[in-house]
Amino acid sequence: MTLQSGWAKAGSGMTAVFGTVVNPGAKDVTLLGGSSPAAADVQIHSMVKQPDGSMKMTQKQGGLTVPAGGSAELTPGADHIMLVNLHSALVNGGDVSLVLRTADGANVEWTVPVRSFAGAEETYAPEDHR
Ligand SMILES: [Cu+2]
């Protein structure tokens, strides 16, 4: 599993990691969450339309499944990897490493650059955080 064109959004508190997750293997792989030295928790999030029409992110039920021989997009405003409770701010030009846990018990480690990004500010729905 590789993360192509991966990057993390510069920020503090919490931030997201984007890119294209590529699964070269013969079996579907599901990412459930993970850890990072930069944050208290790493979660898989999706954006869900609320009854009032706004979009809020929540933890993605069942994780992110990347099909065998295929890929999954992590993009602002859609599925993303969330770094929750950053220990310190991520600044433009730095990098951050993270380890994702798969449903079959493997760990996948990625290091991505940190970039400033002004668009797609996301609203967190903390009531869905468990
Ligand atoms: Cu999120």
TrEMBL record:
Gene3D superfamilies, A to Z: PCu(A)C copper chaperone (2.60.40.1890)
SUPFAM superfamilies per record: DR1885-like metal-binding protein
InterPro entries with a match to the protein in the record: LpqE-like, Lxx211020-like, PCuAC_sf
Pfam family, one: PCuAC
Region (Disordered): 51-71
Protein name, UniProt field: Copper chaperone PCu(A)C
Protein species of origin: Intrasporangium chromatireducens Q5-1
